[in-house]
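During the no-cost extension, the postdoctoral fellow (Dr. R.K.) reprocessed legacy sequence entries with the updated structure-token encoder. One reprocessed record is reproduced below for audit purposes.
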Amino acid sequence: MWLARVIALTACFIAVRCINPTDENYALTFDYLQKYGYLTKDVDAVLAQRRNDVLRKAVEDFQKYYDLPSDGTPNNKTLQLMSKPRCGFRDILKHGKNLSKWPKTHLTWDFYVATENELSTSRAS
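Re-encoded structure tokens follow.
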């Protein structure tokens, strides 16, 4: 009976483990995830319990996007990456959850209508 209670309490603790809104990194994490597209602006209106689930999912999406261990909690590796300087472009576009990076790394290009002068300039550069 004692073991069953311990297991039940452990399961409850794991189920309700959440990001603490009083944590000093909470506001930083929340603002960062909103700025870069992982959270929508209307998440402020969501009830507190649901907001925590949404925030956990956003942290998990961020971790997956950057190939970090994804448990949905803002651990040290996640917070370190969030604190690095970066451009202001969003990772997640507004029209969808594009959680994968573009796989193409070698780009090709061509001039369809180019003068000889433009072609020689492009070859020189």
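Confidence is low (pLDDT under 50) at residues 11-17. The chain has five helices and no strands. The remaining legacy entries will be reprocessed before the final report is submitted.
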